[in-house]
Give the backbone structure.
Amino acid sequence: MKLTSLFESIAFVAEYGDLDADRHVKRVATYARFVGTHVLRLPQASCDRLALAALVHDVGKVAIPREILRKPGPLTPAEREYVQCHTVYGHDMLAHIARVYGTGDAELFQLAQQVALYHHERWDGRGYPEGLCREDIPLAARVVHLVDVIDARLSPRPYKSGQTWNQVKQALVEGMYLDFDGMLVTGLLQVESVFWSLSKRRHMSSW
């Protein structure tokens, strides 16, 4: 089995029946590839791996009840703690799959496990699950955290309206070196017109 097809299948199963979540993870993968290409200037093979890792960043949510994930209002502290466990669940699921299929590209599976586990860590150390900060957070996880937040802010949900790009940009600037890696934010804003054009296309399509 080709690893690209395997990762696409993992994402499909994880988001089955939730069209919003399915489109979200696909956009996050696309945006992660964009950052890898236009901000970090990574080789194409590295950008491909980053996009695949981003595609399964939320796989652990398959273990969280849908009524919690789509609750139309604030979560209780217990529910929030439960949702935060999706990072560890995702890492463990991918680690299990890697033991079966990972011989084809161990680097890809390691990257995917890092992204699943650490994509909610914050630059200032106030994220989860381990409270990592700054460069202790793997670069791929920092990228996915950034584009995950961007897409979440842009996207309307049953319980909220989507923000404008100017509102999102203000949040990014305010979150530099607090929530986000400032180097990534600065680099993205240098090519914001290209990114915004990509984002508008993705929000109008099924991908």
Observations:
- The radius of gyration is 16 Å.
- Residues 26 and 55 are 6 Å apart (CA to CA).
